[in-house]
Design a protein that fits this description.
Elements lengths: L3 H20 L1 H10 L21 H52 L7 E3 L18 E3 L2 H4 L7 H4 L36 E2 L15 E4 L1 E6 L39 E5 L11 E2 L5 E3 L33 E6 L4 E5 L4 H8 L13
Length: 357
């Protein structure tokens, strides 16, 4: 006895054969001779086409090739980015050097490196001319040349009747970010730093004033007079000191043979440490470039102090300097100490060609 399924299956076969004979009499005979049953005209029961795809081995090969290409391209991309950042840093330093030259042309002398004095700080520290003998924290060279780098909007708001940059109404101005004074390679340099305990420009007591990556070259030994405050000009042997100004005639070694500005690094993100564009951004070259007192030289943020810091950068192999003629050069951190000292002095009689740096 046939099951219902067998009966239904046989019926379907007869129907299909009959349909085939009606539409194609010759085809039915061919199917019978071949022992085959004609395909159903219903697409829902037709055979599916074979599927094609990648094997696991093929996928692994493709992934490996992509990984190799990325590994080859990544160093090139990083090198291109570093080259762009280094160029931007050099251009910023160049603009600062040109601003100093323009200031000198208009005023007959370069601006003071800084204008700071504290009673009892010693004769080498000096007393700022015209000061009555009280604490004084006036502007540095980088604050004075703000109008020459298109930042007159900051300088025009300075109250010259109160020259102390740590006090209102001038202290809030020190919170202005001057991107022209920043190197794009130094992370955290756009933060507010701890400048004074007399006020704050942010939520914490250490959020005081903005940082800079460029300092005036002051001395080949020590730019401070007592380990804290800037040494009086002309007691420094470089172009920038405290209180008084340097003239071109004072640079007997020649502007193209004398360092004027140096690139410096700050204390790192969150440290609130570094050099400030408002005051005291001077440096000496005694410890060389990227010394142990700098972050690139191995110092940590907790031990960082701008007073012992020296020329440094996150560019591999050295840092930028601007000479007195406003030319900018990248100087290797392996430069001989005696050569670096000779380039620092303005009137030491050692003529080192800055163009060969």
């Amino acid at each position: 006895m046939k099951t219902p399924y067998q009966t239904t299956s046989a019926a379907w076969t007869r129907r299909l054969n009959g349909a085939a004979r009606t539409s194609c009499p010759g085809c039915a005979k061919h199917w019978r001779d071949a022992g085959a049953t004609p395909a159903s005209p219903n697409p829902r029961i037709s055979e599916s086409p074979p599927l094609h795809g990648f094997t696991l081995v093929e996928l692994l090969v493709v992934i490996t090739i992509i990984g190799i290409l990325i590994a080859l391209l990544l160093p090139a991309v990083q090198a291109a980015r570093e080259a762009a950042r280094r160029t931007q840093c050099s251009n910023n330093l160049k603009q600062a050097a040109l601003a100093l030259m323009n200031y000198e042309s208009f005023n007959g002398a370069f601006p003071p490196g800084t204008s700071t004095w504290v009673p009892g700080s010693g004769d080498d520290c000096g007393k700022y001319p015209g000061n009555a003998g009280t604490d004084f924290a006036g502007p540095s060279w980088s604050a004075v040349i703000l109008p020459y780098i298109e930042k007159a909007s900051i300088w025009d708001n300075v109250d010259f009747s109160s020259k102390d940059s740590r006090l209102a109404p001038n202290f809030p101005l020190t919170a202005n970010l001057v991107t022209a004074y920043l190197c794009p390679c130094d992370n955290g340099n756009d933060e507010l730093g701890s400048y004074t305990s007399l006020g704050k420009n942010g939520p914490t007591d250490e959020d005081d004033s903005r940082l800079t990556n460029y300092a005036g070259v002051s001395d080949s030994i020590d730019w401070t007079c007592d380990g804290t405050w800037a040494k009086l000009y002309p007691k420094v042997n470089g172009m920038f000191g405290n209180g008084n100004t340097c003239r071109i005639a004072d640079v007997s070694d020649g502007l193209s043979h004398t360092l004027m500005l140096a690139e410096v690094t700050c204390g790192g993100p969150g440290s609130r440490k570094g050099f400030f564009w408002i005051a005291q951004n001077l440096v000496d070259t005694h410890d060389g470039i990227n010394s142990v007192y700098t972050l690139p030289g191995g110092c940590d943020s907790a031990s960082y102090c701008f007073r012992t810091n020296g020329p440094s950068s996150w560019h591999p192999g050295g840092c930028h300097f601007a000479l007195g003629d406003s030319s900018v050069h990248f100087v290797s951190d392996s430069i001989d100490a005696a050569v670096l000292a000779a380039l620092t002095t303005r009137a030491g009689g050692e003529i080192i060609d800055g163009g060969e740096l």
